[in-house]
Write a structure and sequence with these properties.
Chain lengths: 113, 113
């Protein structure tokens, strides 16, 4: 299956700042997704990262708050903008490869103070 | 939207079989049942998936009822390392159609020594 490197693994940020999370895959993948997992909760899909075009956001998530880039088939970034303590969560990258199904990264644990 | 219902928590004695149920009464004919698990502080890990027939791999067995409205994940000999949150997900299988995973609340399985 695809191997995902997600960076940073954790960070503590000041409110009002922004953090960009990187997702690097060791092979070309068809689809890339970003999830959020708030403390003690299940995973919630934020958006689908589309290669070469704007991301497709789920209800309740907007581009101004969570801008996403996907410049090629192996890399994507998620930015959490103008952070508040409510953004403290684990953010996970997920990919779909043609021959191996869905794989998740280990996540980025974000704490906003 | 999550289309599955699972009990919030279960206990299982170490060495015994763990049977985790999932209801998916609105599943459509071309949707698969997937199982993932999430060990604390890690990304979700693929376990098994199936469409109609029962499936078995090195990790678990998946039993799907004939009407496909429910399924059971079986861990044949649970170990302490199987303590995790187990997610049952239904979705289309095709990797390049952009059909994302929508997670429900999952079952928190605790394996007891």
């Amino acid at each position: 299956s695809a191997v995902i490197s997600q960076k940073p693994s954790r960070d503590i940020c000041q409110r009002g700042t922004s953090l960009t999370i990187q997702c690097q895959v060791d092979s070309q993948v068809t689809m890339m997704f970003w999830y959020r997992q708030q403390p003690g909760q299940s995973l919630t899909l934020i958006a689908t990262a589309n290669q070469g075009s704007e991301a497709t956001y789920e209800s309740g998530f907007v581009i101004d708050k969570f801008p996403i880039s996907r410049p090629n088939l192996t890399f994507s970034t998620l930015t959490v903008s103008n952070m508040s303590p409510e953004d403290s969560s684990i953010y996970l990258c997920s990919v779909v490869a043609m021959d191996s199904g869905y794989t998740f990264g280990s996540g980025t644990r974000l704490t906003v103070v | 939207d999550a289309k599955t219902t699972q009990p919030p928590s279960m206990d299982c004695a170490e060495g015994r079989a763990a049977n985790l149920p999932c209801n998916h009464s609105t599943i459509s004919g071309n949707e698969y049942v997937y199982w993932y698990r999430q060990i604390h502080s890690q990304g979700p890990q693929y376990i098994i998936h199936g469409l109609k027939n029962n499936e078995t791999n090195e990790m678990a067995s998946l039993i799907i009822t004939e009407d496909r409205k429910s399924s059971t994940l079986i861990l044949p000999h649970a170990t302490l390392r199987d303590t995790a949150v187990y997610y049952c997900i239904v979705r289309l299988s095709h990797a390049n159609t952009g059909n994302q995973f929508y997670f429900g609340t999952g079952t928190s399985l605790t394996v007891i020594p």
